[in-house]
Design goal:
CATH topology of the largest domain: Rossmann fold
CATH architecture of the largest domain: 3-Layer(aba) Sandwich
Bound molecules: NADP nicotinamide-adenine-dinucleotide phosphate
Order of helices and strands: EHEHEHHEHEEHEEEHEEHEHH
CATH class of the largest domain: Alpha Beta
Structural class: alpha/beta
Shape: globular
Number of strands: 12
């Protein structure tokens, strides 16, 4: 099967290519990666020709403008890149009968749920920031494009949350760097305690998506996250525990962390079943797998201090 991945240089895109290289159905040539040089979300009309020349049978659309604070500063651009461009890409797939897996986010929910349950696929959406609104617009545009085409391919929407993984520069990497600074200054680490989500390891998510594709039917709304949910502060605490770094944490409220975007506070997703019936492992186990490489990648910086 000829599977293309947009945003192939991104955190998920890289993991997705690796998972698809290992999948038997992509054959000896493996998956097709589209970086920004091939598919630019500011010129999404180019996608039709790209689908044709690469003879794509299924597209994983992972490219997005993921700078949440940037989206808050320029909501119109966010809507064009994550909403309108997704509609154009989905319509091009639908017209050709090509299957599409659209990667979306927990930020489509308002995070105000108060019953302690995580959000399921049927729960009412209501984004509280420009990024979430633009991603929800992308979901809706893809559904409309499929409904309008006479013989569309299958559409699967995969919502996920709080991605971490290679090449770093993610929440764990930032917390480790901040912990170094806090230790040097003899201060505590300030971390938000009232924002909750599912830390999700990109290689695990990519395996889940690859499994979905391998089942032959990607259709539907899927919530694919590592098992469990936690606050930002709880995530940082577990990371420091696993890394053996005894840095105290000063818990603060999201409202006291100055940033352009407002995150949904209770943004935990209830995972949906993968075709095998297996759920992704816990985020703590995934973090333990990732941590050695993350610590190795920052070793030279520590040695020079
Ligand atoms: N990160 C999270 O915590 C999170 C949570 C939930 C859902 N998601 C969703 O998961 C997907 C993958 O996210 P990620 O964490 O892998 O993000 P990422 O590392 O920022 O990767 C996004 C990719 O999109 C590409 N891109 C950005 N703007 C573009 C444009 N104007 N034209 C073409 N390509 C563009 C980037 O290209 P360059 O490499 O050239 O910049 C990058 O390769 C996205 O759909 C995101 O909305 C992410």
């Amino acid at each position: 099967m000829r599977v293309a991945v947009s945003g192939s240089a991104g955190r998920l895109g890289r993991a997705m290519l690796r998972a698809l290289e290992d999948a038997p159905y992509t054959g000896p040539f493996g998956p097709i990666g589209w970086g920004r040089d091939r598919l630019d979300l500011d010129r999404p009309e180019a996608v039709g020709r790209l689908l044709d020349t690469d003879r794509v049978e299924l597209l994983v659309h992972a490219a997005a403008w993921t700078d949440v604070d940037g989206c808050a500063r320029d909501p119109q651009l966010a809507m064009r890149r994550n909403g309108l461009a997704t509609g154009v890409i989905a319509a091009a797939c639908a017209e050709r009968g090509i299957d599409l897996v659209l990667v979306s986010t927990n930020e489509v929910f308002d995070g105000r749920r108060a019953d302690g349950l995580a959000y399921g696929p049927a729960d009412v959406t209501g984004p509280v920031n420009a990024y979430g609104a633009s991603k929800l617009a992308g979901e809706r545009a893809a559904l409309e494009a499929c409904a309008a085409a006479p013989a569309p391919g299958r559409l699967g929407i995969v919502r996920t949350a709080w991605l971490f993984g290679p090449p770093g520069n993610d929440f764990p990497a930032k917390i480790l760097a901040a912990a170094d600074r806090a230790r040097a200054a003899g201060t505590a680490l300030r971390v938000v305690a009232d924002e909750v989500g599912n830390p999700t390891y990109t290689p695990d998510l990519a395996e889940g998506i690859a499994e979905l594709i391998g089942s032959g039917d990607v259709s539907g709304m899927h919530h694919v996250v590592n098992a469990g949910w936690v606050s930002r502060a709880g995530w940082a605490r577990e990371l420091l525990r696993q890394a053996g770094l005894p840095v105290p944490i000063d818990e603060i409220r999201a409202a006291d962390w100055e940033r352009a975007s407002t995150p949904p506070l209770w943004a935990a997703l209830q995972p949906t079943a993968l075709p095998s019936g297996e759920a992704l492992r816990s985020w703590e186990l995934a973090l333990a797998d990732y941590l050695p490489a993350l610590l190795r990648s920052r070793a030279p910086a520590r040695a020079t201090r």
